[in-house]
Design brief:
281 residues; alpha+beta; six-stranded mixed beta sheet; four-stranded mixed beta sheet; globular
Length: 281
Amino acid sequence: MIQEISPYHFDNSYIMKQPDENSVILLFQDDEILICSKEWSKGEVRYPMALDLRDTGMEYRYLFGINEVHYFLGIAGNQTGSDWNLRGMEFIRIDRLRGTVPKHQVYAGMTGYHLFHWYRDNVFCGRCKSRLIHDDKSRMLKCKNCGNEIYPKISPGIIVGIINGNKLLLTKYAGRPYKRYALVAGFNEIGESLEETVKREVMEEVGLRVKNIRYYKSQPWANSGTLLCGYFADLDGSAEITLEVEELAEAAWFSREEIQAENEDYSLTNEMIVKFKEGGI
């Protein structure tokens, strides 16, 4: 999956420092990230280093380390890419990173994207409206006026492979760019256990009941700021599907032989589908 980047090691501990010339800078504009064009044309991902952006006057905030390389968020203020000389670089949509190489760079870009949104959306205190400052010891924003402390937002969610004998329920999202088959998924709500979320989301999206809910694996998914928890569950009762059309465009039962999927080594969804197809579940 996307976070499995061995032999590289991801270190998310926060330190107060500024980049050196060889530090990697992750610069975002809405849902786009700045990459180096030459490598991108070969299907590879490389981000600019601090040396490449030395004349932009932007500020930097430390994000994380991968092996001995430090990654920083570029803070552009009111400037945009058109204000700088970005020769040899271009902005691409963050979802275009998926499936490219090297994998540790894809993971860095996606994780940086998660933190970019958190910093962007937390400038003022939601309690007293004062401007927030960054703590110098941990990744936390704090309000000097009222003492409010704000940590990165992580939204727990579930994904569930519903099994009916030799068949797995596959779905397609409604109104989203992603058109491949997926599994029933949704966010955990206040007061719910994750297993209760599984039951509710299955009933809401496809009108089915499930039993024997068992945990499979988890995955951070930066696009939605989610910690995605994967489950398998057995159908309990009728297999007749009642589709929630605002969420899903399609839902159908597929036998192991009918499933067309290959392990792409990035998403939990794909891994679970392939696991079932190959008889591992």
